[in-house]
Design goal:
With 204 residues, the protein is mostly helical. It has one domain. It contains ten helices and no strands. It is globular and about 60 Å long.
């Protein structure tokens, strides 16, 4: 493992993407426990893309216009659904009177997982990114890919959790101020729409 890998991974994970936006929105709307569930879900959503990169399935997405387009369309639809769910009353950025229950925490995690699973660019990213750091003198390529992927996932979990807990801290400062929550709701919904549009225009 090289310092270049760690720095590049840090930049990628810190960058505001769909997972970051979802984790921030969950922290603001549902609190600390929910934000950690979102962080874990987004992290687990990396697993299919990592497996796809290791097994070569990502190469199919890279070369097959139909497969890439189908997954891309599903991803766009899901992001638009997320935007609508943020805007409606009772959505993710409402402030409930009670903390999120166990069942809702599982649902929050599942949503976070699907956000990454339905992003075809993630599989293609791993296919292009991880092999650059495979060394001939180290362990087998499979072991190195799994190790690098595990480190990337750990960084994702830690950083996303920090984002979410920070958002939960802000949540306590804006309780009782619905105007601010409405502004946040519109901001995050608009961001999901923008990310959906960006994904719709994405090429292999």
């Amino acid at each position: 493992m090289s310092i270049e890998f760690l720095l590049t991974s840090l930049i990628v994970v810190l960058a505001p993407g769909t997972g970051v936006i979802y984790t921030l929105a969950t922290g603001l709307g549902r609190g600390a426990k929910a934000s950690l569930a979102a962080s874990l879900g987004c992290t687990l959503g990396i697993v299919p893309s990592l497996i796809a990169a290791i097994t070569g399935v990502a190469a199919i997405l890279h070369t097959s216009a139909l497969a890439f387009s189908l997954l891309k369309i599903l991803g766009v639809i899901y992001l638009l659904y997320m935007a609508l769910s943020l805007l409606k009353q009772g959505g993710a950025l409402d402030l409930p009177d009670r903390p999120a229950r166990q069942g809702s925490l599982v649902r929050i995690g599942v949503i976070g997982t699907l956000i990454n699973v339905l992003n075809p660019k993630l599989s293609v990213f791993f296919l292009a990114f991880l092999p650059q750091f495979i060394t001939a003198s180290g362990a087998s390529a499979l072991e190195q890919m799994l190790g690098l992927g595990g480190i990337f996932m750990l960084m994702t979990l830690v950083i996303f959790s920090a984002y979410g807990l920070g958002a939960a801290w802000i949540r306590h400062r804006v309780e009782g101020r619905p105007g601010i929550m409405t502004a946040f709701r519109r901001l995050f919904a608009g961001t999901f729409i923008a990310l959906g549009a960006k994904l719709a225009l994405a090429e292999r």
